[in-house]
Design goal:
Layout (H helix, E strand, L loop, with lengths): L1 H29 L10 H4 L8 H15 L8 H82 L5 H6 L4 H133 L22 E4 L2 E4 L6 E4 L2 E4 L5 E3 L4 E8 L5 E10 L2 E10 L1 E2 L5 E2 L4 E4 L10 E8 L2 E3 L6
Antiparallel strand pairs: 1-4, 2-3, 4-12, 5-11, 6-7, 6-10, 7-8, 8-12, 9-11, 12-13
Keywords: Coiled coil, Hydrolase, Metal-binding, Metalloprotease, Protease, Signal, Zinc
GO molecular function, one term: metal ion binding
Pfam families: Peptidase_M23 (PF01551)
Length: 447
């Protein structure tokens, strides 16, 4: 039985060695160096500041949650690809720790298995030695019984022939003395044989009891050895499962890195197109502002020439615009660092977080310049509110799910569409912008 345990253990060690080599290879795949080009090292490695894999994963979860605002105007494909890769990278150290723990458990289980196999060998050797000793004792017992039987037979044949009979049958004094001495010797031998027989019987009885006790020990050692082998096999199965999980994560990381690189390239192309569109829009708005100012100046000059009073311009912009949505402010106007593409960009408006389908209202009366699809901004409406405080004021409403009006004039508070997540958006919200003479400005100046 112990030989079987040892053969199984040897084969397990061979498999464990192969497992270790495979793990070493998989770790080469799972290293942070496989992150997509352009992804900073901090995004590829586990969360800094901790060596606990589980704590590192929690830190990554917090990091991802904190980045949602920065990724709000990023395409959902890029955001999803980025977050999937970060979660996989955070899961890798946890999987590696699980594999290390499983391998340590295999080593411990194998050591225990060896110890139990040795104990089983010792118990069986003790049993075999006790059986051999009992066999020898039984042989001595048989010999003693034979001698005693012979003496008994002789006594039976010589029944009634005591020392007196022996003495009377002597022919000379020397013969008498010899006969008496011989008779005493025979009696001593007989007594010794009987004593040996009794001792052999007692020894055999004790040895039989000892063998039974040893058999109980052997059975117990056998069960312990079987349990140790089962434990080693379970540990090895757990190690194999942990390695498989690590391999899956490593392959997943490679695939996700490749996907992220592709999404980054697509995002960059979309951003380039958006920048061109923004530049075109800005030039159009600047031209409209110049034309509007020239027209306003011409009207004022005509009124003066006619001797009429020129209406005063609005001197304060604060409170001129109403809130376009009842949603809460999720992001303000200002520069933002893109955590994936690694560049600073202007967040040119104010975000109102609200459920998709929530009404969007015109912030002030004006004329719709355009309404339609505009790439990264999704469905957008632009409203010109005319010359206000010396500037041509235009508001835009972006990422809409659908329109209510697409042309003509609108009044303050009139529903013009509904909140959505169209274009480069990762969630339902209204991206609201204000332009002064074609230049994007902080909407808080007017709200």
């Amino acid at each position: 039985m112990s030989a079987i345990f040892r053969r199984r253990h040897a084969s397990h060690r061979v498999r464990l060695t192969a497992l270790g080599l495979a793990v070493a290879c998989s770790l080469g795949v799972a290293t942070p160096s496989v992150a997509a080009p352009g992804v900073s090292p901090s995004l590829s490695a586990a969360a800094p500041g901790t060596t606990d894999p589980n704590q590192a994963k929690k830190q990554v979860d917090k990091e991802i949650e904190a980045l949602k605002g920065a990724l709000e105007d990023t395409s959902s494909n890029l955001k999803d690809a980025y977050i999937a890769l970060r979660r996989t990278q955070a899961a890798l150290p946890v999987a590696q720790a699980a594999l290390d723990s499983a391998i340590a458990a295999v080593s411990k289980a194998d050591t225990y298995n060896d110890e139990m196999a040795v104990q089983l060998d010792v118990a069986r050797a003790n049993e075999a030695r006790a059986v051999d000793e009992l066999t020898a004792t039984r042989s001595k017992l048989a010999q003693s019984r034979t001698r005693v039987a012979r003496f008994a037979s002789q006594l039976y044949q010589d029944q009634g022939m005591g020392q007196l009979s022996v003495a009377l049958s002597a022919t000379t004094p020397d013969d008498f003395a010899n006969r008496i001495a011989m008779n005493d010797t025979l009696m001593d031998v007989q007594n010794q044989s009987l004593s040996r027989l009794a001792t052999a019987r007692a020894t055999a009885t004790a040895q039989e009891a000892h063998i039974k006790a040893l058999q109980v020990q052997v059975e117990a050692a056998k069960k312990q050895a079987e349990a140790a082998l089962a434990k080693a096999q379970q540990a090895r199965a757990a190690a194999a499962a942990a390695k498989q999980a690590l391999d899956v994560l490593a392959a997943q990381q490679v695939a996700q890195s490749t996907n992220l690189a592709a999404q980054m390239k697509a995002e960059q192309a979309q951003l380039d197109a958006a920048q061109k569109e923004q530049a075109r829009l800005q030039s159009v708005l600047i031209a409209r502002a110049r034309a509007a100012k020239a027209a306003a100046a011409a009207r004022a000059a005509a009124l003066r020439r006619a001797g009429q009073r020129v209406p005063p311009q609005i001197t304060s912009s604060s409170g001129f615009l109403s809130r376009p949505s009842d949603g809460w402010i999720s992001s303000e106007f200002g520069m933002r660092y893109h955590p994936i593409l690694h560049y600073w960009r202007l967040h040119a408006g104010r975000d109102f977080a609200a459920d998709c389908g929530t009404p969007i209202r015109a912030a002030a009366s004006g004329t719709i310049i355009s309404a339609g699809w505009t790439g990264g901004y999704g469905n957008r409406i632009m409203i010109d509110h005319g010359i206000v405080r010396g500037v041509d004021l235009v508001t835009t409403y972006n990422h809409m799910s659908r329109y209510v009006v697409q042309s003509g004039s609108v009044s303050r508070g009139e529903i013009i569409g509904y909140v959505g997540t169209s274009g480069e958006s990762t969630g339902c919200h209204l991206h609201f912008e204000t332009y002064e003479d074609g230049i994007p400005r902080d909407p808080r100046r007017w709200l």
